[in-house]
Design brief:
Elements (H helix, E strand, L loop, with lengths): L6 E4 L12 E6 L4 E7 L6 E4 L3 E5 L3 E6 L5 E6 L9 E2 L8 E7 L6 E9 L4 E3 L3 E4 L5 E6 L5 E6 L4 E6 L5 E6 L7 E6 L5 E6 L3 E6 L4 H12 L2 H4 L5 H4 L8 E4 L5 E5 L4 E6 L3 E6 L12 E4 L6
Length: about 300
């Protein structure tokens, strides 16, 4: 979905797809009709949309298109990526900045981050940044809205690593558990204060990372100070006090679910069985949760 608008980006899928799996459909839900169709030579795994760009993720390629002209901005090579692992920034209020993170094409366990400034007619691209995140394959990547924080998980699923995108340095590690698990979802809340995860163990973990914001606040202050202060090197790892263990967790009955945070201090989970969970969180009081609400989603088959 394009922000909070009626514009959706769709790709056909499932056993009886309504639309072709090699087309991106731009759908106007208000008018109930297709606005544009973008055709590729191979099937699309995932699609992401912003007010300035459309991103199509393929098994070993990523296409970035200008949403106004549909002209190609860039084509990126990725490591073999059958699940379309990637993440983009969404807060593009400043100069239409776009960060995109994806598995590095030349080696497993590494993440490539590309940076663009996009206008209606043109774009500028910075040098890519390569981050060594894990020894094994990357299983999940998520950035916060601003593209300042990168969180990664490997196919072991026992820990998550947090990186400062601007420096490429690791900030800290968060530990989900000792047993290997398949990570179904990683999510960062609106203010970069919480990280949530779901896995095939049926357990939801919530981590408190509000201290991470101090790094980005310090960097922003350094940008606004004089040249002497700009030369000061940041050492965020020693200054932060982040608990590597989740401060709250709870069980769901299903093995697969996706998680998100609302701006009303709610955690929302939709599962593969069509169930919907909702609970409130309170970081200041130790992450106390009220009773987890569950309801079945009513899906119209027509």
């Amino acid at each position: 979905m394009l922000n909070k608008s009626n514009i959706l980006a769709l790709v056909g899928g499932g056993t009886l797809p309504k639309y072709s799996e090699n087309k991106i459909i731009i759908w106007d839900d208000h008018q109930g009709k297709i606005m544009r169709q973008i055709r590729f030579n191979t099937n699309i795994i995932k699609v992401r949309i912003r007010s300035d760009a459309i991103i199509g993720i393929f098994e070993n390629k990523i296409y970035i298109l200008n949403i106004n002209t549909l002209e190609k901005i860039d084509i990126l090579d990725t490591y073999m990526n059958p699940h379309g692992i990637s993440s983009i920034s969404y807060n593009n209020s400043n100069y239409n900045e776009l960060f995109i993170a994806f598995p590095y094409s030349k080696s497993k366990g590494k993440v490539e981050i590309e940076y663009y400034i996009i206008s209606k007619e043109s774009h500028k691209k910075d040098e890519p940044k390569i981050i060594t995140a894990h020894e094994s394959n990357i299983a999940y990547i998520i950035m916060n809205r601003e593209g300042t924080l990168l969180v990664t998980a490997s196919d072991k699923g026992t820990l998550f690593r947090l990186f400062n995108v601007s420096t490429g340095e690791m900030i800290t590690e968060l530990r989900r558990g000792k047993q290997n698990a398949k990570i179904d979802c990683l999510a960062i809340n609106f203010n970069t204060e919480l990280i949530g995860c779901t896995s095939d163990k049926g357990t939801v973990h919530i981590f408190d990372i509000h201290e991470v914001n101090k790094i980005f606040e310090k960097e922003e202050n350094n940008k606004n100070n004089d040249e002497n202060n700009k030369k000061e090197k940041l050492k965020p790892n020693k200054a932060l006090k982040i608990n590597e263990r989740s401060f709250a967790k709870f069980k769901i009955t299903e093995e697969k679910g996706i998680l998100g945070f609302s701006q009303k201090n709610e955690i929302l989970i939709i599962t593969s069985d069509g169930n919907f969970y909702k609970t409130l969180y309170d970081v200041k009081n130790g992450g106390n949760y009220n009773k987890l609400e569950k309801q079945l989603i009513d899906i119209d088959d027509e």
